[in-house]
Amino acid sequence: MAAEAAPPFFAEAIVFLAATVVAVPIAKRLGLGSVVGYLAAGAVVGPHGLQLLGSGEDVLHVAELGVVLLLFVIGLELDPQKLWRMKRDIFGLGTAQVMLTGICLYAIARLYGFPYSTAIVAGFGLALSSTAFALQILQERGQLSSAYGQRAFGILLLQDIAIVPLLAMVAILAPSEEPMTAADIAGEIVIILGAIAAVVVTGRYLISPIFALLAASRAREVMLTAALLVALGSAGIMHSVGLSMALGAFLAGVLLAESSFRHTLEADIEPFRSLLMGLFFVAVGMSLDVYLVMDNWQVLAAGVVVVMLLKGVFLWGLSRGTGSSNSDALRIAVTLPQGGEFAFVLFTAAVGVRLLDYQTVNLLNAIVILTMLFTPLACLGLDALAARAKARGVENPSIETFEEATPTVLVVGFGRFGMVVAQFLTSEGLEITAIDNRPERIAYARKQGYRVYYGDATRADVLAAAGAGKAALVAMCIENEKVMAKAIDLIRDGFPNTLIFCRATDRAHSLDLARRGVDFQIRETFESSVVFGRAALEALGIPLDRIDQVEEDVRYRDEERLAMQMTDGLFAGSDKLHKVTPRKPAKDKEDIPAE
What we know:
Blueprint: H1 10-29, H2 34-45, H3 56-76, H4 80-85, H5 87-111, H6 116-127, H7 131-140, H8 147-173, H9 182-216, H10 220-240, H11 245-255, H12 262-286, H13 290-295, H14 297-321, H15 326-335, H16 341-352, H17 358-391, E1 408-412, H18 416-427, E2 431-436, H19 439-447, E3 452-454, H20 460-465, E4 473-476, H21 481-494, E5 499-504, H22 507-516, E6 520-523, H23 524-539, H24 544-568, H25 587-590
Parallel strand pairs: 1-2, 1-4, 2-3, 4-5, 5-6
Helix pairs in contact: 1-2, 2-12, 3-10, 3-11, 3-12, 5-6, 5-8, 5-14, 6-16, 7-8, 8-15, 8-16, 9-10, 9-11, 10-11, 14-15, 14-17, 15-17, 16-17, 23-24
Domain RCK N-terminal: 406-522
Pfam families: Na_H_Exchanger (PF00999), TrkA_N (PF02254)
Protein name: Monovalent cation:proton antiporter-2 (CPA2) family protein
């Protein structure tokens, strides 16, 4: 009996997974980062290595979805107001970097005898940095939210936008018998603006109500499907009119940044993003022709040095000239000197219209890949300088690192209890993030002016996306004891240095929380009952000093009962419930000396 054929791409998937499982841990152990591991894995198993996988270009078409999802997740972390505040970095610093680097590389290419069209496409293609590569480095180092990380992201965002006019430039430079008329150009602009408007209107007014409806069904797989549909659908709309898919996904993410479902969307998409990003870098590594590198090593070495050095100098100079410290400018310079994935898109388009030949494109692609490979080494070099300066006890502001130190609190559960807790924290000016799993409660809290997000506290990825790892304290204000217990275990395992404060629903729950070792817990019914009892005694005419004695004694006996119940069970210490508080003798009698 003949064996049934394996599913399509089954063998390729096994090779890909095996290669990454081996290469990535080794690269990270060596301090090179996961990206270098993916590149190395692709180079080894690709058509120019062990030939276990076919062409990297075929894989790249699928893997580019990783870049799309990456930009969607980044967009979720930026609200429109924050994006507007970055306009100087995006359109000022980013534009200056692309123009200056592109013009200088064009001049160098012309100096070495390359034709006009080849030089301009190569120069501006190499001026673009890798959004996927640089953001992966920043995220691995936890520095995307730092001052220099935000400026670097602004530059990368402009470069993603710049691919649109650069592709138009290729079309203009291409030999054509039928040039575009003014009416054709106007029609293209109208179509592009219509696509952008469709994404904006859908993201602004339709997506949140749809997600609220899906959340009420409590079907996680449907929420996951909807999240992928939003990211890929917006990318598809932009791609259909000739714009960057990644740019469309980013725009959709920005429009959902203020949605109450932001953290859940991020957590749902993260596994797909990580897997596809890994596949993307493997595909890039597969495209590296080792034999081409060996045959043209002098040209490629010169190209890598020129591109990285020129981009690094411009990035440093422009960053310093626009207000960055020397430390931040250096870190921007060593994070963004590589070529980018959009260079592959631009060079492929140039080949299609016969502006570049295959030999030239292969050399340019090799330069891009090699600059990616050497970027983590540049980062390690700067880190080594910082470590050496620190070991000498030298305060060197040119190589110091940026560390964020703003205390934040994550409030889990935003009912009546959680809202009062949040009011205390915000009254002190502390920054809070709140999550809840009931859409109607979220809607009510948002009407009260609180920014509350949809999230399941029993999911570690949602807690991480909501900021549990950065929070100084997590306030567990939920009613469900089982949900709270699982959330506490997840926080203790994933974020052991975070303080955990809990709301206990009753005495048994309080004992359970004590056994779990939370940092603070309080029975909401006990405290309200104490206030109630004081008011009752006061209404019955009991003096205030006697009421204080009773409260102190009740609290003391309650602590004794809790200690006994921890070891002897819930009914231990019941006799302490029925004692009368002893009356303290008056001070004037105590002060009379004995005869």
